[in-house]
Amino acid sequence: MRFDLYGRLPTGTTVLEASAGTGKTWTIAALATCYVAEGHATLSELMLATFSRAATQELRERVRERFTSTAGGLATGDRRDPLVAHLLDCPPEELALRRHRLAHALSEFDAATIATTHSFCQQVLDGLGMAGDSEPGVTMVESVDDLLREVVDDLYLRKYATHDAAPPLLSPKEARDVARAAAGDRQARLEPAGADADTAPGQRVRLGEAARKELERRKRRVGVRDFDDLLVLLRDVLAHPTRGAAACARLRARYRVVLVDEFQDTDPVQWEILRRAFHGHVALVLIGDPKQAIYAFRGAEVLSYLDAVREAETYDLGKNFRSDAGLLRALHHLYGGAALGHRQIVVRHVDAEHATSRMPGQFPFRLRVLDRTDAGPLGKTGYPAMPGLRDKVARDVAADVVRLLSSGAELSVDGDPRPVRPGDIAVLVRKHVQVAFVQAALEAAGVPCVVSTSTSVFATQSARDWLWLLQAIEQPHRAARVRLAALTPLIGRTAAELDADPDRALDDVGDLVRESARRFEEAGLAAVLERLAATTRLEGRLLAQEAGERRLTDLRHVAQVLNRVAVEESLGISALVSWLGERVDDPQSGSLAERSRRLETDAAAVQIVTVHGSKGLEFPVVYVPYGWDGARNPNQATLLLHDPDGHRVLDVGGEQGPGWAARRKQAEAEDAGEELRLLYVALTRARCQVVLWWAPSGQAAGAPLHRLLLGRTDGDPEPAARVKVADDSVVLPALQSWGWPEEISVEPVGAVTPLRWTPPAEPLPALAAARFDRQLDLAWRRTSYSGLTAAVHDAPHVTSEPEAPERTDEPQAPPPVDIARDGPPSTMNDLPAGAAFGTLVHEVLEVVDTAAPDLAAEL
Fold first, then answer.
1. CATH homologous superfamily for the domain 353-456+602-749
2. pLDDT band at residue 593 using 50, 70 and 90 as cut-offs
3. Closest CA to 220 of 129, 150, 125, 138
4. Cβ distance 453 to 608 under 8 Å?
5. Alpha-carbon distance 397 to 407, whole Å?
6. How far is the C-alpha of 130 from the C-alpha of 240, rounded, in Å?
7. pLDDT-based confidence at 603, cuts 50/70/90?
8. CATH assignment of 13-124+255-317?
């Protein structure tokens, strides 16, 4: 049933099932406006929740904008906005009340409860006080990876490092993988539960159980808590046999309306919290799109969404505001009526807001079909090797982008028609390994591109460059380390330079490394980078190279993280080398925000984005080159799946564990369903045009695009699990027959001819010197504490002084002042004066632990 925003507002538990582009955030903002304007709830009685900080900020801005525009429309009586027109249809007395309610809500909007689910849990626990079982003095942290690594190392050594221990049955890396999976998904049941403790599978399970328990114990000991702890704590409070009813009652009294966005990304704990606290008692509106449930690896549970559907009234959001009608018809031809991993997750028809194409003269849906030529030698299976196919597809992507940019095609997405620009295009990839192929091909074609992925910066060469430099700084007397540091872009020597005059080059670089060591001790890592950048012309060297902007961004990113860690944790050079070495060995450790690579530029460029990173975004033109790439990791350390009752299961036993084969089959089936949903997310980012590739690979048999194209039969919503990849002579006619609608173009691709894009010449504005027209406030000045207090102590001083390069607030050796004193002379009279001694005193007071048992050693 279609949802009518202008009908009766939901009063009980309601699920609004969206589709891509149907305006989830717009709907939730409009609902919030209606609830407040019509008097069903005040702003303080309204709670809006979503699942990420970025989405929360966007939601807050959208709700404020909706409140503001609606209040303005009610004041002027402008009926062009359908929501305003709906709210204007009331008696004058009620209209005055609606205007007052919105104005009052805007006046206190900063206090609105619009938060992530984790922030909401924290607020609730704080508000419940003793009933919330809160622990004073506990610090919230985003990641406990460092603590988990310490736990795993201790457990591993305790098990295998004793004199009478048996040989280890799993490596330290395997132990870390198992422990991270088990500790990161505490709600999942570990399997194989009955494995013999003397076997590798049994020891893996026991390690996972021990890691969970020990991590919880150490978190309490050191006083930290992560976000998942908040969810479990609040759930336990609400389910408590004696205090739970009172806690639920307080929440219901506080919030009369609860709106939850992106509900398909929920999990069993979050749904239990919402169900216990609000289901059946307040207006609980859950908005989500199960077809975009793609975060199982983070603990999201689409089955929890389906559980909520069974307990609620359900409506559809049926109009797409993103994509052109022709593109929607083509996409519906591909996956309309298909079940995406579950028979209750079906792609339904949606209407289009944009009836005509905003990119005229272009097919909205293009499928490029590769044959086996020009992709390297054929293997024993009759298919080209995967690297060759990925490279050929990437080269064809680049050539096709050049043709589009040079074709004169126009867009009218933002008003008047204009030519397609690189910034209108996104290339969406499924795996990080595919990024390098696409980036290299676009750069070779002269097309500006930018990589926007959640790849860890510690997995880059830049992180290793910093590690090599820090190792040289740690031990500058070791020639091998100095030579390795010299070859990093941070110093910028070449192998030819080192070989031409090795002794002199080593002396020069050694001097620079030793100076860097001194700078680190005196002023920290930021000063090291600043000095190196100036001495070696770092920016100029890198920006003159291909992909230099990317390299420079990563180097600065790593430096910023290192500087923060060194300052916050008081790490010396050896400890910092160890810290970075652990991150390079395990790039996925640490917080996601800290390690995710940053954009190297915000200039107009083709964006290369992973499908996960593209969720919530939209682009005029979307390229999806690797929907055929169904390659899987053959050496999975763990399996995540569900048992027949819908409970999460984490198999950590490995290939030798009992039941591994059956559980792997189930896990792969669930993964295949999520791959279908990932392809749905990728295709629905487009506003005007989608371009896909199909390539002949044995891995394509289970890939989502191949299954949708050739694996569906009439009347069955579920695509076949695997579809044989036939010869080129069979596949091309079959795909051409499939692509009969006029909106679809099926295009055979043979050998790829490289093309290069030449940007259109744009007239440059006349250069002119900038005029300085600011009014300077000359009353402002920089001073120091000594300068401010010198008059009190009758000492000579200056009222303004330049910023000192050292950490000092003392004037340089003021002349002695004769002051008569009574009593014995001070024992401090003979201490030296000046900035150096002042800095020493500061260091002692700031760094030395005066409570240390051995104070002399501490000094």
1. P-loop containing nucleotide triphosphate hydrolases (3.40.50.300)
2. low
3. 138
4. yes
5. 15
6. 13
7. low
8. 3.40.50.300
User: Rounded to the nearest 5°, which phi and psi values hold at 178?
Assistant: -65, -45
Containing 836, the helix (H) or strand (E) segment is: helix 835-847
Specify the pLDDT at position 113: 92
- 353-456+602-749: same fold as 13-124+255-317? yes
Task: Tell me whether the omega of the peptide bond preceding residue 644 falls within 30 degrees of 0, making it cis.
Answer: no
Distance CA 80, CA 347 (A): 32
pLDDT of residue 499: 83
Assign 310 a pLDDT band (cuts: 50, 70, 90): very high
SS3 category, 260: strand
Amino acid 760: pLDDT: 85
Query: Around 430, how many Cα atoms within 13 Å sit in the side-chain half-sphere?
Result: 24
Counting other chains too, the contacts that 714-723 makes at CB distance below 8 Å and 24 or more residues apart are 717/337, 717/338, 717/339, 717/343, 717/346, 718/338, 718/339, 718/343, 719/338, 719/676, 721/669, 721/672
What's the predicted TM-score (pTM) here? 0.80
Q: What is the pLDDT of residues 624-681, one digit of tens each?
A: 999 999 877 777 889 999 999 889 999 999 999 999 999 999 999 999 999 999 999 9
The fourth-level CATH superfamily of domain 458-587 is: PCRA; domain 4 (1.10.486.10)
**Mean per-residue pLDDT over the chain, rounded:** 88
Give the model's pLDDT for residue 306: 94
Q: Strands, DSSP E only, in 256-338?
A: 257-260, 283-288, 313-316, 319-324
Domain boundaries, the chain: 13-124+255-317, 144-225, 353-456+602-749, 458-587, 782-859
pLDDT in tens, 403-423: 999 999 999 988 889 999 999
What lies within 8 Å, CB to CB, of 329 at 6+ separation is 741, 743
Q: How many CB atoms lie within 10 A of CB 733?
A: 11
* Count of CB atoms situated within 10 Å of the CB of 182: 24
Query: What's at 54, amino acid-wise?
Result: A
